[in-house]
Design a protein that fits this description.
0% strand, 6 helices
């Protein structure tokens, strides 16, 4: 539990700095804060669903859990990109700023998700 809290505290710096930059340096981020929060909301929802399913898979299918987790990560990535183009892009418009900000948000959730899945697979939960 101690390693989980330590890892999460460092990982949570990414969205904190990203959202702070959107608030205080909007010319640097080049995307409106509500659109950035929409991206984080979509990715958060997908991550919660992913972690819920992974926790079930790890308990029931220990031997195949690594392969199933990898397949689910690919599915989550595809759904993230589809939702980006279906939900976010119509509000923000196409552009490099949207792609970069989505990449930063996705990177945060990828690291966060991977850390929690590794802790689940090791049995530290």
């Amino acid at each position: 539990m101690k390693s989980l809290l330590k890892s999460l505290s460092w990982i949570l710096l990414i969205p904190f700095l990203h959202i702070a930059a959107a608030l205080f340096i909007p010319d640097f981020v080049r995307i409106a804060l509500p659109h950035l929060l929409l991206m984080y909301g979509i990715l958060c929802g997908l991550t919660v669903v992913h972690l819920f399913v992974v926790s079930r898979v790890v308990r029931r299918h220990k031997q195949q859990s690594a392969m199933i987790v990898m397949a689910m990560n690919m599915l989550k990535m595809l759904l993230s990109i589809v939702l980006l183009f279906v939900v976010v892009v119509p509000f923000t418009g196409k552009g490099g700023a949207v792609a970069v900000n989505f990449g930063v948000a996705y990177l945060f959730f990828l690291i966060f998700d991977s850390q929690l899945v590794l802790l689940m697979l090791r049995g530290d939960n």
